[in-house]
Description:
Blueprint: H1 4-9, E1 16-21, E2 25-30, E3 33-39, H2 44-59, E4 77-79, E5 84-90, H3 102-119, H4 136-157, H5 163-192, H6 195-202
Antiparallel strand pairs: 1-2, 2-3, 3-5, 4-5
Helix pairs in contact: 4-5
Amino acid sequence: MYNREEEILEQYEIEIRNTTRGRGAFICDTDKGTMLLKEFRGSKERAAFLYDILEFLSREGFLAESIVPTKEGEMLSKDEAEDKYYLLKNWYPGKECDVKSKEDILAAVRKLAGFHNLCRYYEKDIPRFLAAEDDGLQKEYEKHNRELNKVKNYIRSKHKKNEFEMLFMQMYDSYKNQAMEMTEQLKEQLSSLPVEDKKQMYGLCHG
C-alpha cells in the first residue's frame, strides 16, 4: 500500500526512489535529483507567480529552488483524500545559516542583496493581491516607531531594571531620533516619486 506522499507524487513526471520526512515536508530522492514536497496553503495564483519569479531568477543565474509542474502542467498537486494542495520543488543539499558565524551571516546578506537587486528587473506585473500599498512602507515605519515608544514606556515603568534595560533607556532618544528622521525622509521621497519609480523602489519582499 502506498504512503500518502507517494500517491501525490504520482501526479509528477518523475521516478521516486525514496522519500523521507523532514520538517513539515517530504524529502524525495528522484531520477531528476532531490526534491521537496510540501503542503501549500496559498492560492493557485500565488503558486503561479512564485513559479514565474523563481524561473526568472534561474534565468538570471541566481541559484534558487524551482517549482516542478505536474504532468498536467499545474503548479500544485492535490491530495484528494485530505483536500490539500502540495508544491514540489527542486532542492539543494546544505546546512542552515549559523547565526553565530560571521562568514555565514555575510554569505546570507550577499545572497539576499543579490535577490533584491535582481528583482528590480522583473518586468512582469505583480499580482494585485501581492502588491504593496503606495504608502505601505511609510505605515510600516510609523508602526515600528509606535512599538518602540511602547517598549520605552514599559521599561520606564519598571522599578527594577536589568543591565540591558538600563542601556536601552540611555540609548533610546538617539535611536528614536534616527527612526523619526528616516520616517520623514521616506515621506518626502514617496511624495516626490512617480508611481513607476515607487514600484521599482519596493521591488519584491520575501517571506
